[in-house]
Design brief:
This protein is mainly α. The chain has 17 helices and 2 strands. The protein is elongated, with a radius of gyration of 33 Å.
Length: about 400
């Protein structure tokens, strides 16, 4: 057998074939795509369909100053468009003073604005807003699950009905009689989902809700399969995986930013509403942003880990510098545990499974690093801080 043949024969068991490498890369790309789907499906299930989570989001929305301003403006418009303050005052004033009704109505216009602004900052009113939002979310979930009877009273649309808050505002003016009769049922409704969009929303939500619980398992299985197939190039495959997860994080954050920009600039007509719409989008999608940042950070850590165990001169020097510390089992694992707890604390992780994957991947990477450092310094004791002095020269008698 020639030298070249012997070399190929000896290298073949340790390296993957071209087909295995292609399969590994296909699995890696599929895992990255499934990760994006997992993030989106989990977000929809937790944010849009979970009532407790939505209540917390509603509290954050009404606590936002820009959204408070927009809600108060909606209340004022609904009140002024349906209540003739001048006529109400005229009916209450004595005949000789009825001429003052119009000037007093003008003064009360500014008072309505002030009272509405104060009203939306009060805890009881904010609690009422949360309850109204929760009812709308319940209606929204029923519609997504096919119960169209839930929107028969709103022309087939899912709406946020602020009429109860308009009545609270009107109660501040004792001279307005039969206020509930003057404020129509649809006077302060904000459309959340239009009837023509229900079919698409139902299909997409059903699909995402069904796969949210298991699609992440498929993604992890694809990663494991890709690394297993890439025999002889597993470090490079892990590095590619890290870059892929970084791409996932960037895609999620970029999609959130672009969707919010489109929503505010193209779907919101009034410039006065755009600040509130932008803040509302940021609050509603903050869980999506958190998932994007976690993916970005996790991908960077995987990429750095793959570099650290590589053959580069800087990586080799870094391992050599850390070898005395890594050789000491308890201090090394103690420092790893502290670093892992700190990472879990600072990252906006919202799912236990994300924490579990991060911990398992971290432990595997740390074990691989310690084994590689031990293999590179077999049986070598920790270097002494000071070299022993040379023996003294013999003394001639």
């Amino acid at each position: 057998m020639s030298g070249a043949s012997a070399s190929r024969a000896s290298a073949s068991p340790a390296s993957a074939s071209r087909g295995r490498l292609i399969g590994a890369r296909v699995l890696l790309i599929l895992g990255v795509l499934l990760t994006v789907v997992s993030i989106l499906s989990t977000y929809v299930k937790r944010e849009a369909l979970d009532p407790d989570r939505f209540k917390q989001t509603s509290q954050e929305l009404i606590a936002n100053p820009a959204i408070q301003q927009q809600v108060s403006a909606t209340l004022v418009d609904a009140f002024n468009n349906n209540v003739d303050v001048s006529a109400e005052l005229q009916s209450k004033l004595p005949p000789k003073l009825q001429g003052l009704a119009a000037p007093l109505a003008g003064i009360s216009s500014g008072l309505v604005d002030q009272l509405a602004s104060e009203l939306v900052t009060r805890p009881r009113v904010q609690d009422a807003f949360v309850e109204i939002s929760s009812r709308s979310q319940e209606q929204f979930v029923k519609v997504l699950h096919g119960d169209t009877k839930a929107v028969q009273t709103s022309d087939g649309n899912v709406v946020l009905d602020l009429r109860p808050l308009v009545l609270k505002l009107g109660d501040r003016f004792g001279f307005v009689q039969n206020l509930a009769d003057k404020i129509p049922q649809d006077s302060a409704q904000i459309t959340i989902l239009k009837s023509q969009d229900l079919n698409t929303a139902q299909n997409v939500t059903h699909w995402l809700e069904q796969i949210a619980n298991f699609v992440w398992i498929l993604a992890v299985a694809c990663w494991v399969g890709a690394i297993w197939l890439a025999r002889g190039r597993r470090r490079q495959e892990v590095r590619a995986l890290g870059i892929g997860i970084v791409t996932v994080g960037i895609l999620v954050l970029l999609t959130r930013w672009l969707a919010g920009k489109y929503l505010v600039n193209h779907l919101v007509v009034s410039d006065t509403v755009k600040p509130a719409a932008g803040d509302a989008w940021n609050i509603i999608t903050q869980a999506l942003a958190a998932a994007g940042w976690v993916a970005l950070t996790f991908g960077i850590l995987v990429t750095v880990g793959a570099w650290l165990v590589g053959p580069g001169s800087r990586a080799t020097a870094a391992r050599a510098s850390a070898s005395p510390f890594l050789a000491r089992t308890w201090p090394a694992w103690g420092a790893f545990a502290v670093a892992m707890l700190f990472l879990i604390w600072i990252l906006p992780i919202q799912m236990f499974r994300t924490t579990a994957i991060l911990v398992v991947a971290g432990v595997i990477g740390f074990v691989v690093l310690r084994r590689q450092v031990a293999a590179e310094t077999p049986g070598a004791p920790a270097p002494a801080a000071v070299a022993p002095p040379p023996p003294p020269p013999p003394v001639n008698p």
